[in-house]
Design goal:
Shape: globular
Helix content: 25-40%
Number of helices: 9
Order of helices and strands: EEEEHEHEHEEHEEEEEEEEEEHEHEHEHH
CATH architecture of the largest domain: 3-Layer(aba) Sandwich
Strand order of the largest sheet: 5-2-6-8-11-12-15-16
Largest sheet: 8 strands, mixed
Bound molecules: aspartic acid
Structural class: alpha/beta
CATH class of the largest domain: Alpha Beta
């Protein structure tokens, strides 16, 4: 594998990586990213040409909205032919949602889209931003036989590249802020960049990229907990316009056997609401029918989220609803891995 002179587009959306401290309030606020890049002379040593597009209004990722995911996907669509790879600079708080969403919006991707950010601003003495940024650009530049090595949406943080739609933010403080418990990391940065080819998405014969631009937000998430009020659940399930519920269950997909609870779900399903069973455990998979406490869910045709993350489940549902997948096909399409997001 060799690194050739490549063209990389940095898309700056906001987040800590490009923030500076407001001297009056001490709070972090977004800063002109082009100016910040000038303060990283190391970038000149890279074997690539780097251009930057910045959101006019860089945002903390807590303000990310599906329309911003579509904005990023549209930039990639417009610039697709002119670049070998894309690095999306993003706040870490909702980066797993964005990486998951982009994986669904960008169908037949044949170039790398690497999301990265940092826990400390780029100007900070002990920043993790420089390593994350520089290595993300290097990974986005990897080529073999004229093809990009990474042809999927990845998330790079603290020496590891993960499949984006497999990640979850697990730590608000540590530089190692993300985990991908159900899929091994794709690249590890040490003295060398080690690419684990066996874990990458398989190479598909040349198909043209399709950029989807509709996300349907009529989705809710409910995390089960002992003592949860059925009134609350009922009011969520009867929300006007609701089309899907991601239900975070216990362990391998287990839920209470209480008839009132099960009846609420049954009624919602018969009203056309898609109910998806994902586990609230960070690792492992839903196995419906393994315990009596999930048999009823299986019988009423609750969708099996298998080992998908909640972030990927929410964005997959938004994407599938946006793409107009019919009610008849919804369960089987959801239970199929579309972008390597589940087994
Ligand atoms: N609050 C910031 C954000 O997600 C944190 C970060 O950038 O890591 O935008």
């Amino acid at each position: 594998m060799i690194t050739v002179k490549t063209n990389i587009l940095l898309i700056y959306t906001g987040g800590t990586i490009g923030m500076v401290k407001d001297y009056n309030s001490g709070a972090l606020k977004a800063f002109d990213f082009n100016k910040l890049l000038k303060s990283i002379p190391e970038l000149n040593q890279l074997e690539c040409t780097i251009n930057t597009i910045s959101f006019d209004d860089p945002i903390d990722s807590s303000d990310m909205h599906p329309k911003d995911w579509i904005r990023i996907a549209s930039i990639i669509e417009e610039e697709y032919d002119g670049y070998d790879g894309f690095v999306v600079l993003h706040g870490s708080d909702t980066m797993s949602y964005t990486a998951s969403a982009l994986s669904f919006l960008l169908e037949n991707l044949s170039k790398p889209v690497i999301c990265t950010g940092s826990q400390l601003p780029i100007g900070d003495l002990r920043t993790d931003a420089k390593e994350n940024l520089i290595t993300s650009i290097q990974i986005a530049s990897l080529h073999h036989n004229g093809k990009s090595v990474i042809r999927e949406v990845g998330l790079y943080f603290e020496y590891k590249l993960y499949r984006g739609n497999r990640t979850t933010k697990i730590n608000a403080e540590h530089f190692q802020a993300f985990a991908s418990l159900n899929h091994p990391h794709l690249v590890e940065s040490g003295v060398h960049l080690n690419v684990f080819h066996e874990y990458l998405l398989p190479y598909k014969r040349k198909k043209k990229i399709i950029v989807h631009k509709i996300m349907d937000e009529n989705v809710a998430v409910v995390k089960l907990f002992p003592g949860m009020s059925l009134f609350v659940l009922e009011s969520i399930l009867t929300t006007t316009g609701l089309k899907a519920l991601v239900l975070e269950t216990y362990g391998s997909g287990n839920a209470p056997t209480d008839t009132l609870f099960l009846d609420l779900l049954k009624k919602a399903i018969s009203n056309g609401i898609h109910v998806i069973n994902v586990t609230q455990c960070s690792g492992g998979s839903v196995i419906m029918g393994q315990y009596e406490t999930s048999t009823a869910l299986k019988k009423m045709q609750v969708i099996n989220g298998k080992d998908i993350t909640t972030e990927a489940a929410i964005t997959k549902v938004m994407y599938m609803l946006g793409a107009g997948v019919s009610s008849e096909l919804f369960k089987s399409v959801f239970e199929t891995s579309l972008r390597g997001e589940m087994i």
